[in-house]
Design goal:
6 strands, 4 helices, 141 residues, alpha+beta, six-stranded antiparallel sheet, single chain
């Protein structure tokens, strides 16, 4: 049994991710070893691209730990690809006093406890959806 934190909001990207870039993040979402290789952390990456590939959102799964640090890792990874990230994500943990905002401004992440959600996030991308998008891209569908 673990602690669950939920998130709303999104972090917009200065350009859409390529299929290959999205795949890297989704591999880290599906495989803990991929997260270790990519970011040196021993947990799943639960920040994933939206289906539109133009933002990062929470995948909706439970027990997301080190979310502030992992957002920083994602933003550094994006910056290395000349992608600028900006936006706000609101968190609510199981404890009533565990609320706050992650703010991303020009790939820099800050956390502010005590604020509440203001907007909804885009739909998280899955590997199956990414495969369908890649097939459509290749076949012109």
């Amino acid at each position: 049994m673990g602690y669950t934190t939920k998130f709303t909001g999104s972090v917009s990207l200065s350009r859409t991710l390529t299929i290959a870039e999205a795949r890297v993040l989704l591999d880290a979402n599906e495989d803990n070893e991929a997260t270790k290789v990519l970011f040196g952390r021993n947990n799943y990456l639960q920040w994933v691209p939206t289906e539109s590939l133009d933002a990062i959102v929470w995948d909706g799964n439970e027990k997301f730990y080190d979310y502030v640090e992992l957002m920083g890792d994602v933003c550094a990874w994006l910056k290395a690809r000349d992608i600028t990230a900006n936006g706000e994500l609101y968190w609510a943990g199981e404890s009533a006093d565990d609320r706050g905002t992650l703010t991303v401004k020009d790939n820099e992440v800050t956390a502010d406890k005590g604020t509440t959600a203001k907007k909804r996030a885009g739909k998280p991308l899955t590997l199956n959806k990414l495969a369908a998008m890649a097939l459509d891209q290749v076949t012109g569908g």
